[in-house]
Amino acid sequence: MAARQYVARRIAQAILVVALVYIIVFFTLFVLPGDPIENKLTSPLNPLPPASAEALLAYYQLDKSPIEQFAITVGRLFSGDLGYSLVSGRPVSELIAQGVSDTIVLAAMAFVFTLALSLAIALTTVFAPWAALRNAAASLPIISISTPSFLIGFLLLTIFSFQLGWVSSIRDQGLVSYILPAATLAIAVNGVLSEVLIQGLRRARAEPFVTVLRAKGTGEGTIAIRHILRNGAIPSITVLALVVGELLAGAVVVETVFSRRGLGFVTYESVRDQDTPVILIVVILVSTVYVVINLITDLLYPTLDPRILRHGAKPGGAPAARPTRRQKVTA
């Protein structure tokens, strides 16, 4: 398979997935029985004045058919108009912009923590000289998978904020305030990545090339880092894309626990208030990021494993079988 065809096909698949997600979410929110927009605007607790409510009803054109509403919304989306909040009347783009910057910093720091923690656990499990240490490290992924993120957050707050007083639970301390939420996310999502990395390193360590390198006098550290880690980490690349999705999803809970006003907090408030235009854009934003990360992952595979392009193998799979000499003659 040619490199251009591989890239073009992956990009087309990514665009199709995002489009399908948008269509499904739109009709789920706006075509199900009941009218969440009108219900919200006519609620006694609605803070919007009647003039603003009428403007929103006219803006969303609820008198038109669902297909017409969809066409209007898609046209506005391509022009950069994301709609208006049903709760505050503010543009959805402003609400998203307020929350997304905080969440990006949190998710990026949590991603770095996740990589460092997973590498430390996997390398310790596979290469530590003491059996007790290897067994202890091997049990950490299971503990991580079985422990909910909100419990991890409460434990970290209790220890480092309430008891030790190292981090404030109220004041904004800049990047320091991101440490506990990012550590909570990293501890909660690293289990699967650590387990896949451990299995990959064990398989790579048993390959014949390791024996050949040792026979050539290559040091154990060089073998472990430059050869075993590089080969054993290939299956983990797919899991990295899943980790990004888990970080964005986990931010909803973690930002609530730590009272951070990021994208997760915006999502929580929108779901609570049935603010459907905001929910729609948040879901599309998260799904787009998730799909783009998966696309980047797929495009990285041929660099790490050129057999994917030469033999048409799927990422992470075995290369396609080459035709035998007799098959070539027959053809």
Keywords:
about 325 residues; mainly alpha; about 75% helix
What does it look like?
By secondary structure, this protein is mainly α. Helix content is 76%, strand content 0%.
What is the helical fraction, as a range of percent? Answer: over 70%
Q: How many E-type strands? A: 0
Oligomeric status = single chain
Low-confidence segments, ≥5 residues, pLDDT <50? 313-331
Strand content: under 5%
**Outline type:** flat
Termini gap = 20 Å
Major pleated sheet: none
Q: Give me the number of helical elements.
A: 15
Task: Indicate the structural class.
Answer: mainly alpha
Succession of helices and strands:
HHHHHHHHHHHHHHH
What integer is the average pLDDT? Answer: 77
Measured on Cα atoms, how large is the radius of gyration? 25 Å
Quick summary of this structure?
The protein has helices at 3-30, 36-41, 50-60, 66-78, 92-127, 131-146, 149-163, 176-205, 208-215, 220-232, 234-257, 263-273, 276-304, 307-311, 325-330. It is mainly α and 331 residues long.
